[in-house]
Each structure stands twice: as C-alpha cells, then as structure tokens.
Amino acid sequence: MENKSYETYARVYQGILRQAVKFLNWKPPLCLRGAGMLEILPKTLKVRNYNKVLIVTDEGIRKAGLMDGLLDGLKSQGIEYFIYDGTVPNPTDENTVEAAAMFNAHQCDAIIGFGGGSPLDCAKGAAVMAEAGHENIRQYHGLLKVRRKLPPVIAVPTTAGTGSEGTIATVITDTENKTKYAIMDPALRPEIVVLDATLTTGLPREITAHTGMDAVSHVVEAYINQSNTKATRSMAEEAIRLIFQNLPEAYHNGKNKKARDNMQYGAYLAGRTFTRGYVGNIHAMAHQIGAKYPVTHGEANAVIMPYVLEEYGPVIHEDLARLSDAAGISEAGETVEEKAQAFISSIRDLNASLGIRETILEIEEDDLDEMVDYSFAEANPLYPVPVIFTKGKFRDMYLKVKNGPQSD
Questions:
Q1: Which segments constitute the Rhodanese domain (predicted)?
Q2: β-strand pairing of 110-115 with 52-56
Q3: What is the pLDDT along the chain (408 residues), one digit of tens a residue?
C-alpha cells in the first residue's frame, strides 16, 4: 500500500469526508469558566433534572479531595451520586465496561468525568457502553460508528491539555492487544464543560508540562492538516497564544490562577480545534508508544512533534509561520521559512525548559512492526495530514524518536 495510488485514495476519502462533516452538529458544550465554577455545576444539573449521576474519576483524584466540594453541592441539591474510581492511565476497554455497568445498575441520568484525560475519556467510553447490551467497545472504533443518543456527559478537567472536554473523541486502550484506538462521533461531545482553574493549581510540574505540550500538539496538528475552517484556525491561533504565554508560568508558579485559567481555556480551544481539524501522524505514533510503554501521552507527543514537523518540510512552512506569529515568536523581517524553523526550535526549547527529554529510549525495535502497522492504520485514510507517511516512513520516525537526530 506504500504507493501513489493509495495516497490518491486517501486524499479522495478525506475530501469527501471534509464535505460530509459540514452537515454534522458542531455546537460546542455549555462552558462554565472561572474560579469557583464547580460550585455552579450541581444547580445546573438539578435544573436539567439529573437526579442520579455517575462520577468517573481515578483513585488519586478521589484521595486528593478535589471532588469534595462537588459532592457537597450534589448533596445540597438532592442529587444522588455514585463514584467509579477505577480508571487507569490510558483508560481501558475494561474500565469503560465497569463504569457503564455501575451507571446502569443505579439507573443514573448523567455521567460526570472528573480528572485528567483518562477519566474524561473513560466517562465518554462508559456513555457509549451504557445500555449497549454487549461488552465490545472496539466495534465503535473509527468515525461515526456510535450513531445513537448517549447519556449526557459532563466534563470537569483537572489538567490543562487533553482537550477531551471539547472533542467528539475518546481514546481507549485494548487490554488484550495493548494498542490504542479512537472512537469519534458527535454523540461523544460533552454537554457541559467546567473550567475551574482552582482544580489545577496543585498539579505537579511534570503533569503541567506533559499536558501543556499535549495541548500544543493538538493545535499544531489540527492547524497544519487539510480540514481546517476559518473558525478552527482562529481558535488554534488563540490557543497557541494562550499556551505559549502561560505554560512556562503555570509550570514554574503553579499557584498563579490567571496562568492556570488561561491554560485551561487554551487547552479547551485546542480540543475544539482538533475535533474538527483532526490530529495526525504525531498522535498516531504517540498512541502506540503510550499503549506499550510507561510514557504519558503528552510527553510522547512533545518528543515526537519536532521530528515529524521537520520531516514534513516546506509544505507546512506557511502554517508554522502563522503559528509563530500568533505565539509571539516571530521577529521583524523574518522569512516564512525562518519563522517556521523558529517555531520548530521553540518547541524543542519549550520541551527543554519543561524538563521534557529529546528521545524515548523505551521503544523496542522488536515492537516496531506492530507499532508501525497500527500507526499507519490509525492515520490512514482518515487523518488529513500534510504528508501521508508510508509504513517505511513511520518506522524511520520511530527510530528517530528512539535514537535522536543522529539517526538521520
């Protein structure tokens, strides 16, 4: 399949899809933004007649007490709640089935995803599996496979990066095969999003760094892809400005609520951007690294990003130059190529300032065949990337990510 005829097929597929998705419902979630907004959520749920809710989170969030105010508010509104805290990093198909079983057993009205990207994705997966009548979530892998109304999902992110609160996607890990796959359908868009920066002020630096760079990768991949709209480009430019201006401050001074608020909003905009513009080859690689090795998704994206952007070459220079302008990196008199190169260098510099490494040594060459196959299958023909990678190119990129620039 590594030939021109397949590339032609992929571009035709993407072109047809680009026209078809114009008819989908792209209405954004109700966004409650601001410090203390979590206190508003129980009243909002009561108004919508949600009297029983399942909260999907993880054990660390529950033990940290971040949900205590929400739980008190639910009690005050007479809303009964049940908690599923079994979500693991890179949530699994088993997690979604377990959470859905709890939702059904208690006849809940809505699902609250509370936490980082893993609980949010698990909450979406649980919504898919609620009352599904089977335990095979993999059958929904891909685009527009759900095709039915789901229980409402309320997203309360406690990090700033995954963007899941603003997307129509969830990423699930196949327990048996240790691979990741995405489910994409407008039915997965959360009904309500709560962006309360006070939930993120205690984040460790490493999580701040990894999730922040995850948001950068969302903006970059969506912006350079071929399915953008005027609205998504505008959101991407605003998101990259907010992230570049606030991520270093959020990393070094985590108590700065303004920086945390701007990062949350930037990550949310990035999520809305890539839910329409898609991600690309960077994510197709990162998903497989995260499924096989103890590497966070954000860190994998951060490391992979400059290698892939360099590989794309001049075809993305104009887009990167515009992102460079939006991020405040460009200098007067620079050419498009110089701005693009400066933007790629800024990614490496930002990684270094956030303590993110340049390579992922955990990658095992014995795993490459499988990882290459899954990455190619995820990216093609769906992702409207600027350059379609062959399987051989994916292999080359994995080796660069493992060995560094010297592998050229």
A1: 98-155
A2: parallel
A3: 457 889 999 999 999 999 999 988 889 999 999 999 999 999 999 999 999 999 999 999 999 999 999 999 999 999 999 999 999 999 999 999 999 999 999 999 999 999 999 999 999 999 999 989 899 999 999 999 998 999 999 999 999 999 999 999 999 999 998 889 999 999 999 999 999 999 999 999 999 999 999 999 999 999 999 999 999 999 999 999 999 999 999 999 999 999 999 999 999 999 999 999 999 999 999 999 999 999 999 999 999 999 999 999 999 999 999 999 999 999 999 999 999 999 999 999 999 999 999 999 999 999 999 999 999 999 999 999 999 999 999 999 999 999 997 655
Q: Are strands 169-174 and 179-184 parallel, antiparallel or unpaired?
A: antiparallel
Kind plus residue range of the DSSP H or E element containing 178: none
CB 327 within 8 A of CB 239: no
Residue 367 falls inside a structural domain: yes
Residues 16 and 73 in one domain: no
Q: Is residue 236 domain-resident?
A: yes
- Kindly state whether residues 164 and 219 are assigned to the same domain: no
The answer to the question of residue 151 being in a domain is yes
Which strand (E) or helix (H) includes residue 32? strand 30-33
The answer to whether position 133 is within a domain reads yes
Count of domains in the chain? 2
